[in-house]
Fold this sequence. Notes:
By secondary structure, this protein is mainly α. It has 7 helices and no strands.
Amino acid sequence: MTAQALPERRERRSAWRRLLRAARPRGRQFFRAFDQHAALCVDGLRALTHLLADLRDPDGHVREIEAIEKRGDAVEEEVRAALQGALFPPFARVAVHDLANRLDDVLDLVEDAAQSVHLYHITRVTPEALKLAELGLDSALKLQAAIAQLERMASPGAILALCGEVDALEAQADHLMRAAMSKLFREETDVTQLVKLKAIYELLEELTDKCKHVANDIQALVLKYGG
C-alpha cells in the first residue's frame, strides 16, 4: 500500500465509524441512568469527605450515604430492567451491564467506608485519610464529566483524556497510601488506633481503584464506538 493510500483509507474508516455512530440506537434512558449513577457517586464521595472532615455527627453522615447508595441500587435496577426490554441498546449488553455494576461498586465501597468509620468509633483522622477521600471525589467528578459525553461522543479524545486523569489520580492515591502507611507505623503509638486507621486507609485507597475500573470501561466503549 502506498503512503498516499494510507490517509485515504483512514479517512474512509473514520467516515464509516461516524456513520455507525450516527446509526447507533440512542437509548436515552441508559444515558440518563448513567448520568444519575455518576452524580450519586459524586454525592456519596462528597458526603464521605464531609464525614472525615467533621466527625462530630457520624451517624447523620452515614445515614445520608446509605440513602445515596440505595438510590444507586435503584438506578442499577432501572438499567437492568431497561436492558431486558431493549431491542437495540446503545452499546453491547454486557458493556452496559458492566458499566452500571462498576458505578454501583463505587457507591457500595463509599457506604462500606462510611459505616466502618462509624462502627470503629473513629474519633480522629489524619490529613492523609482526608486527602485519599478527596482524591476519590476528584476521580468521581472526572467520571461524571466523561459519562456526560458518552451519548453524543462528539469528542472521544476529551473523554479519553478524562479517563487518563482518573488513572493519574489512582496512581497518586497509591503513592499517598504508601506514604501514609509508613508514617502511621512509625508514629502511631496506640495499637488500636493504628489498626483502625490502617483499615480506613485501605478502603479509601480502594475507592480510587474502583473509579479507575469505571474509567477503563468508559475507555473501552470510546475505543470501540467513538470512531
